[in-house]
Design brief:
Length: about 525
């Protein structure tokens, strides 16, 4: 084996290399272990120093926190001690005040007791004095009866008659003063009278001027008007703005609204829907829109016809529309548009007699109630509301003042406002003007005269000026002037409480003495 020595030599070298390698690695491992141990000792030392430093800082912070807490507690205790001292001081002051008040009350009690004793003594003295005065009065009464020749009862009756006459005169004077004050405050008195008239009239006519009845010929149509779960009637109310009442009256639909134009639109739309038979929400909206458009045209036509009938110059389109809306309004059952035309004609007639501008007079008469077409939307009296609207639309100052002053809410600047007021009263007060038939009118006049004749001392009684005035003639021997004035007030009160009438009624009591001699 020629290579055996080399093999043995190589194996020996390999073994020696392995041994040296193991020794090197072992030494290296020991050195690394010593380094790691040293590093670990260094970390532990550093951690120990940090922990000691943290512990030291924590102790310092705890000491500072404890010192601060102690200072706060001491400050709180000091504040509480101060508050307690202040409270104790206030309690001491209150105690001093209470003691002073108790002392004062004790003094007042003693003073009241002393005064009570004094008052009792004075009361006893007054009783004795009253007994003495009563005895003296009795003696004087007997002496007066002997001197006057009248008994006590007779003297009492004479005295009461004098007191009654004096009281009557005082009451008449007070009443005259009250009436004079009311005349000086004409605006307040007028508003009171108008309010009372509205109250009396409203209880009988409100339903007539706020509702419209539609008769139903077919019972089934009522169900179609209501619709499934009431959807048709809700759609109709939303589209027209009126309230629909179905079940209040048999075979009748009641339309309720304060706006007469809306009520008229609802009436015409309901009639068309009933005639057509197709009633559902879409059809309702179509019909109401169509009727509303036609109503606008009708309103404009009615206003234009009124302007043409009166014979005045053309007006602003908005004014003409508002004038046409008056056709659907009523005042005491009187159509306001026809009333306005009549007032315009009467105002023109009076203006012609006085030489006043006819155009302005007729325009003011025609437009005097224009505010009633918009007074539901604008607050204030219809005269001033209408005048303000006319001013905005270019009417001249004379017409505006005539409209504003026809009820004297403002002072007339000329005669036009006075003429409009007179024409308004004439148009409203003539018999039959406000849907009052002749039988009702005669009955009211008869009742008015009966009330006047029911009072003692009345000789004759006449109703004049179409029932606007009651003239009462009294017997001059039965009533004096003061009693006549009081009689007028009592008759007016009876008329207010027992009769229903538009506007106002004047009561005039006439007392006259006629002395007649015949020369022969």
């Amino acid at each position: 084996m020629p290579f055996l020595p080399e093999i043995i030599t190589g194996g020996a070298c390999l073994a020696v290399g392995v041994v040296f390698s193991w020794a090197y690695l072992r030494a290296r491992a020991r050195r690394r272990s010593r380094e790691e141990t040293a590093a670990a000792d260094s970390v532990l030392e550093r951690a120990r120093r940090q922990s000691e430093e943290i512990l030291r800082e924590s102790r310092l912070q705890a000491a500072e926190e404890g010192l601060r807490t102690r200072q706060e507690i001491e400050a709180s205790f000091t504040m509480r001690r101060t508050e307690e001292q202040e409270r104790e001081k206030r309690l001491n002051q209150r105690e001093i005040l209470l003691n002073a008040q108790l002392e004062r009350l004790s003094t007042e009690d003693r003073e009241l007791a002393r005064r009570e004793d004094s008052l009792q003594q004075r009361a006893a003295a007054l009783v004795r004095e009253e007994e003495r005065i009563a005895q003296v009065n009795l003696t004087r009464q007997r002496q007066l009866e002997d001197l006057a020749g009248m008994s006590r009862q007779q003297a009492r009756e004479v005295f009461l008659r004098e007191i009654q006459m004096e009281s009557t005169r005082d009451a008449a004077n007070i009443h005259r003063a009250a009436i004079e004050e009311a005349r000086q405050k004409a605006e307040e008195k007028a508003r009171e009278i108008i309010g009372q008239a509205i109250q009396r009239y409203a209880s009988h006519h409100t339903n007539d001027v706020t509702t419209t009845n539609i008769s139903l010929t077919d019972v089934e149509i009522k169900g179609r008007i209501i619709g499934r779960e009431g959807r048709n009637i809700r759609a109709f109310e939303n589209a027209t703005g009126v309230t629909v009442l179905i079940d209040d009256t048999p075979n009748t639909v009641v339309l309720s609204s304060f706006d007469p134009v809306r009520r008229e639109v609802a009436r015409e739309a309901m009639l068309q829907l009933i005639q057509d038979g197709r009633i559902h929400p879409n059809r309702i909206e179509e019909v109401v829109a169509h009727v509303s458009q036609e109503m606008e045209q009708t309103i404009a036509r009615l206003g234009a016809e009124a302007v043409a009938q009166v014979g005045v110059a053309p007006m602003h389109p908005e004014v003409v529309k508002l004038l046409g809306r008056l056709h659907f309004r009523r005042s005491f059952s009187q159509n306001i548009l026809r009333h306005s035309v009549e007032v315009a004609q009467l105002t023109g007639l009076m203006a012609a007699e006085l030489g006043v501008d006819l155009e302005d007079a007729r325009r003011a008469g025609l437009l005097h109630d224009i505010g009633k077409a918009m007074d539901q939307e604008t607050p204030g009296p219809h005269a001033t509301v209408g005048a303000e609207m006319l001013r905005r639309h270019g009417e001249n100052a004379a017409v505006v003042n005539g409209v504003a002053s026809h009820h004297f809410e403002v002072q007339p600047e000329g005669v036009i406002g006075i003429l409009v007021n007179a024409a308004d009263a004439i148009s409203a007060s003539r018999p039959g003007a406000r849907s009052e038939n002749m039988g009702t009118y005669l009955k009211r006049v008869e009742d008015l005269e009966k009330i006047g004749l029911s009072f003692p001392g009345v000789e004759k009684c006449y109703s004049v000026h179409a029932g606007r005035e009651l003239r009462v003639f009294v017997k001059p021997t039965d009533l004096n002037d003061d009693e006549s004035f009081d009689l007028a007030r009592k008759i007016a009160q009876r008329v207010e409480s027992e009769l229903q009438y538009p506007g106002q009624i004047r009561v005039t009591v006439i007392r006259e003495t006629r002395c007649v001699e015949v020369a022969k």
